[in-house]
Design a protein that fits this description.
globular, 21 strands, six-stranded antiparallel β-sheet, alpha+beta
């Protein structure tokens, strides 16, 4: 089995053995897995395991991790005064950034020898199941088939699994539900197989993705110049020919997908692309299209909608938008249309669109949006989030934009819309499953609606998912890396009023305490560096009583994208922080590889009031070398996500009956592998299977 599939199965708590395995060293393998990684096998034939399982576990959880700047962390750090900490840092910078020497790891010149107590604290074992390689392949092929069915974009890691399933195992992939996934498969395989599912206007999306993947220098220049990448075209000849063939084939296919009206929305970009391609139309419809794009008139649907809004009101504008862009566009423009209504009758007519809507993905997105409006209020600057190229970008309304905004919704109106969305989803889902057993833990697992901007690894949950924290333990955040000079782990404390306090390499010399301790800024880690934070929640709350949330992030100070280096991050729960090694695999709660094409990633947050750990796992489209220069406040929206809608809610609404005994259930929703055997089951980490349930 190839490495991509082995890692994907390990993320599902599955170890495999060769189909012809005789398991000569199975007992030694079991012992090593338990002693080194805290892995306990709870189902499957463990007598067929081989030493290969140890190698896979070691790659995913590691045994040896590069030492931190202060090797005696955290005990030795707390004995140093501010002057020593600061001098250590400045001396280290002089040796690295000052002289350009990153060849050897630099460590403290003040730290004394530190002897650790043996590691002897209790930990929660990881429960794994065992299956043959052929069974594992079949399981992942089912996952890959679910990826083809889901309408939401998938992560880079999932795309690798899907590509392997298609290429190596012959997974039929004639249809793809997500245009984003189809585009990336087309570019990866240089195929035109999925072209029939696209409108002519979507060709620009294909070109944009092609630039991002194969022409990063153009993409980076476009960001620096604040221009659309399509305005900086300089494609190779083979790519010009491929794009030209896509346009020609669209006009050969003909039909309703040749919607020239949609192309008017980006008319100037079409003109630039056609000029760059030296495009020569081959039939009458293609010639008409080229002439329209090069002409002076603009017939876009949104222009027609605005005209209808001014002349006839929101109801007519809705029909214009539906006719030109479809019902999905109407749902996405719901708030805009509602805010333009001049009567209660108009508002009710616009809201009635929800009562007949069938796009479950957009309805769930609206559910989250309206819940935030009800929870946080509607008369304040909005935060816009969007994901492009699997990176999240945000924009917070400026004061001028906020004052000029016309699309205000009252909290009462948002609550009314929220009730309608919930009622419609319950109506659409009711009876989809028979008897269902749902583990109460699933109330803390958010629905995977935007996981394409996240990373994959052991213990990863959907954004906004929560884990209860044992406040008797210390949360130890970690990151380690190779092939780059300097990666920085940082913490930001946020108050409920929006204030912030920075805990990072540039502030920690004066803030080291029993509440929060930093392992020192490791800047010579090209061949292996690591950084850690220890956060003692009770002590932190005493020292920083105004801080409600802590946001932990990772960024490359050297400004090299994570995709060009090796980097892992995660967190441990430690009862005795001074015992054992700094990095103890058995206490690792999560560990994942960061490989996004960005220099900044939000890892997780801690709600100090509730005592919960909250998954953020978001690759940011903003590149900055210092965490404190960003506004992290928008991330607190994820802290209430499970209260709005969770995995538990979906199955509760979709079940004919919720049962207390898993044996009576047709479907089991739980991470407890022992009660899932022989049943159709869903786990918190089954992102693809869960996402594919929404039409």
């Amino acid at each position: 089995m190839n490495k991509v599939f082995q890692e994907a199965l390990f993320r599902k708590n599955i170890l495999t053995y060769p189909d012809d395995s005789k398991g000569e060293n199975w007992f030694e393998t079991l012992y090593s897995l338990a002693q080194l990684f805290g892995i306990r096998i709870v189902s499957g034939d463990k007598t067929k395991l081989t030493n290969e399982s140890i190698k896979i576990a070691q790659e995913q959880l590691r045994i040896y991790v590069p030492p931190a700047f202060y090797r005696g962390f955290p005990g030795s750090v707390r004995t140093l005064n501010v002057d020593a900490l600061l001098f250590d840092q400045l001396y280290h910078y002089a040796q690295t950034y000052g002289t350009g020497d990153f060849s050897t790891p630099g460590h403290s010149i003040f730290e004394e020898e530190y002897e650790r107590a043996p590691f002897c604290e209790k930990y929660r074992p990881r429960k794994f199941r065992v299956m043959s390689e052929s069974e594992g392949v079949q399981l992942l092929l089912q996952d890959a088939a679910a990826m083809l069915k889901q309408t939401r974009p998938i992560s880079d890691t999932d795309l690798d699994v899907l590509a392997e399933a298609i290429c190596e195992y012959g997974l039929p992939a004639k249809t793809v539900a997500s245009k984003n996934t189809a585009i990336r498969l087309m570019i990866r395989f240089r195929t035109t197989n999925y072209l029939s599912m696209f409108n002519l206007s979507d060709i620009l999306k294909i070109v944009d993705e092609l630039i991002y993947i194969w022409y990063p220098h153009i993409y980076l220049k476009s960001k620096a110049d604040k221009k659309d990448p399509l305005k900086l075209l300089n494609l190779r000849n083979r790519d010009r020919k491929w794009i030209t063939s896509l346009i020609d084939r669209k006009f050969e296919q003909g039909g309703p997908t040749i919607n020239v009206t949609e192309c008017f929305e980006r008319k100037d970009l079409w003109c630039g692309l056609l000029h760059h391609l030296h495009y020569k139309p081959k039939n009458a419809s293609a010639r008409a299209f080229v002439n329209a794009m090069r002409g002076n008139k603009n017939y876009s649907t949104y222009s027609a909608m605005e005209d209808a809004l001014k002349k006839h009101g929101a109801t007519t504008a809705l029909e214009v938008l539906r006719h030109g862009k479809g019902s999905g566009a109407v749902l996405r423009s719901l708030n805009y249309l509602i805010s333009r209504c001049k009567s209660e009758e108009e508002i009710e007519h616009i809201l009635s669109e929800i009562d007949t809507a069938n796009n479950e993905v957009i309805l769930v997105q609206l559910l989250y949006a309206y819940d935030l409006m009800v929870r946080n209020g509607t008369i304040k600057p909005r935060v816009f989030r969007y994901i492009k190229h699997n990176l999240m970008a945000t924009h917070t309304e400026t004061q001028d934009e906020w004052k000029a905004r016309k699309s205000f919704l009252t909290q009462k109106l948002a609550a009314r819309a929220l009730d309608k969305v919930k009622a419609r989803l319950k109506q659409l889902w009711h009876g989809r499953f028979g008897k269902v057993y749902i583990d109460p833990f699933m109330k803390q697992v958010a629905w995977p609606i935007s996981e394409n901007a996240g990373e994959a690894g052991v213990g990863v949950l959907p954004k906004g998912s929560k884990l209860p924290l044992d406040i008797r333990k210390t949360v130890r955040a970690f990151t380690y890396w190779e092939r780059v000079d300097d990666i920085d782990l940082s913490c930001m404390g946020l108050t409920e009023e929006g204030g912030s306090i920075e805990f990072s390499w540039r502030t920690m010399a004066e803030r080291q305490s029993p509440a929060i301790t930093f392992s020192g800024d490791e800047t010579s880690g090209y061949t292996g560096g690591s950084e850690y934070y220890d956060i003692n929640i009770p002590e932190f709350k005493k020292e920083w009583p105004d801080v409600r949330y802590v946001i932990v992030s990772d960024n490359v100070f050297s400004m090299v994208p994570f995709s060009g280096v090796f980097c892992r991050a995660g967190f441990m729960l430690r009862e005795e922080p001074n015992s054992g090694e700094i990095y103890e695999p058995k206490t690792v709660q999560t560990s994942f590889t960061i490989n996004s094409a960005t220099t900044f990633v939000h890892l997780f947050g801690i709600d100090l009031k509730e005592g919960t750990f909250v998954w953020l796992n978001t690759a940011s489209g903003i590149c900055t070398p210092v965490a404190g220069e960003l506004n992290h406040a928008y991330l607190t929206d994820f802290f209430s996500r499970t209260e709005a809608f969770s995995v538990y809610d979906f199955f509760a609404w979709a079940a004919t009956e919720i049962v207390d005994d898993p044996k009576e259930a047709d479907v089991v929703v739980s991470d407890d592998l022992t009660i899932c055997e022989g049943k159709e089951s869903f786990h918190s980490y089954d992102f693809a299977k869960l996402a594919a349930l929404l039409s």
